[in-house]
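Quick illustration, no need to memorize.
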Amino acid sequence: MPKSVWTYLDPVSLVVIALTLLLFVIALFVKGFTHDMLLECGVFLVSVKLIVMSHKNGARRDCRKSAW
């Protein structure tokens, strides 16, 4: 049975996820949908990409450990 996504993320990563999402939502309401908001979306997507890469590395590490 596959593990949950949250088992591969440490508490610091979870804090970063929550903080990034919170700041993104605040920027959405403060700035509205302007050119600056598109830049905020880009920053948010980079953060998501790093989190996904972290998850994939954790899953790959566990898979290799179980193969040995």
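The helical segments are 11-31, 35-67.
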